[in-house]
Amino acid sequence: MMTQRPGTKGLIFNEPNVWDKSREGRCAISLPKADVERSPLDPALTGDTPNLPQLSELDVVRHYTRLSQWNFGVDSGMYPLGSCTMKYNPKTNEVQAARQGFAGAHPLAGDECSQGALRLMYDLERSLAEITGFDAVTLQPAAGAHGELTGMLIIHAYHAKQGRQRSKIIIPDTAHGTNPASATLCGYKSVNLKSGPKGILEPEAVAEIMDEETAGIMITNPNTLGLFEENIKEICEIVHAKGGLVYGDGANMNAIMGVVQPGKLGIDVLHLNLHKTFSTPHGGGGPGSGPVAVNEKLTPFLPVPRVEKELDTFKFVTDCPDSIGRLHTFYGHFGVMIKAYAYILTMGAQGLLDTSRLAVLNANYIKESLKGTLNLPYDRPCMHECVFNDAKQQEYHISTMDMAKRLLDYGFHPPTVYFPLVVDGAFMVEPTETESKEDIDQFIDAVKAIAKEAQTDPEKLTSAPVLPKVTRLDEVAAARKPCLRG
Ligand SMILES: *Cc1c(COP(=O)(O)O)cnc(C)c1O
C-alpha cells in the first residue's frame, strides 16, 4: 500500500489579485533620501495618478510564486499523457537556443551573414534523415499536423506529376485524429480501415480496399494503441503495387529511435514532432516543429527554400520547379531546430537508442503492473504507451473520467482519456523515458488504490477531485465559457 503521495496535500493557496492586497503606503523599494526639494507632479502633464497596487517586496514575491504553483508541468510532476510524449527536456537546450548569435539572427540577413544558422539547419536535416532512414528533410512545417498537410501536398503533387490524380486516402482506425483532417484539407476523401484483432493492420484488409483511385495510406507507427505495425513492409508493397504512396505519421518516433528506420520499411514520406521527441516542451502553447522526411522520388516536391551545401558554403535554394512551394514565413521555427540539434548532438546515436529503449521499457512495466487492475484490451508487448479501459470498473458504475479526476487528488496529471477511439473508455498512459522507477511505482500504486476505492468507496471517485484548487468542473461550460480569473 502506498505510504506517501507526491504533489498535492491540500496546501494550495488562494490568492487575490494584487489590487485587493494593496495597502495605502506599503512599498517594495527603499530609495536613498532625495537631495533635492520635493515638487508635486503637474497633473496637467501627467494626467490622473496611475492606480498601481501598493505592496511590500514579500507581497509581490508571494503573489507571483503562488500563481506559478497553480500551474502543472513536467517540471512539477509526472505527466503521463498518452500520445503526447510529455518528457523532461534538458534546460541546456533552452540555453543554446537563447544564445545571442542564434536568438538575434535576423531572417532577412542574407545567406552570407547566416552561415552558422544555415549550417545548423543543414546538419539537423542530415541527422533527421539518418535517424529516419530517408533521403531528404524539410524543417519548415510548424507542427505535426502541418507536417501531415505538407506530406499530403507532396503526395498530391507526385500524382499530379504522373498525370493521374487520385481521390482517396486510406486511414486506419488507429491513426492519430489529425490524419483524416490533413487528408481532407488536401481535398482527399478519407476511407476508414479497421485494424485486426491484434490491434494492428492486416495486409489482406489493405489489399481489399487499395485501388487505383487511392492516392495512398496514412499509417501512424507505432500506432495510437502504442503497438508497432508489424505488417508495415507487406502493406507498403500492396500500396505501391497499385501506384499509391505510404505516409508515415512519425510523431511516435520517441519509441523507435536507433531501432527502426521508417524509410527502410517502404514508407515514402514521414513527419516528426520535434516538440515531442527532440527536446522542445510540448503542450505549453509555444512554437513546435514538424519536419517532413521523404525518399528520393519525392525529394523534388519538398517545400522551398531548401538548404544546400556547395563546397563549404551553405545557401537557400528556391529554384525547384516541382516544389509544392512555401509553407511558412521564412524557414519555420528556428528556435525549436536549435534545441533539437543540441539534443541530438548531446545524446549521440547511443543516447537516442537508450532513450527509446527506456521509453518502451517504462510503458511495458506499467502495462504489466496494472493489467490485473485495469482492463487491457490488447494484451501484447507495447511500444512507448499502453492503453487500458474502464471495463472492470463499470461494474461499480465508475468511469475512466472518475479515475482520471481522482488521480489529481493523488498528485498526478491524468493520462489521456477516451482516446484512441478504437478502445471504449480508453485510459492511455505514456510514461516516457525520463521518469524514474520510484515515480512510476508511485503512479502504479495510485492507480491501484483508486481501483480499490472504486469497489469500496465509489463516492470518493465520483466526487473527485477534492484537493486541487479547482474541483470537478462542468466540462461543457468550462470549454464554452472559460473563466480565466483563478
Ligand atoms: C501529436 C501527434 C500529432 C499532431 O501533432 P501536432 O504537433 O499536435 O499537430 C500527429 N500524430 C500523432 C501520432 C501525434 O501523437
TrEMBL record:
GO terms for biological process: glycine decarboxylation via glycine cleavage system. Pfam families: GcvP2_C, GDC-P. Its cofactor is pyridoxal 5'-phosphate. It catalyses: N(6)-[(R)-lipoyl]-L-lysyl-[glycine-cleavage complex H protein] + glycine + H(+) = N(6)-[(R)-S(8)-aminomethyldihydrolipoyl]-L-lysyl-[glycine-cleavage complex H protein] + CO2. It is an enzyme of class 1 (oxidoreductase). Keywords: Oxidoreductase, Pyridoxal phosphate. This is glycine dehydrogenase (aminomethyl-transferring). It comes from Desulfotignum phosphitoxidans DSM 13687.
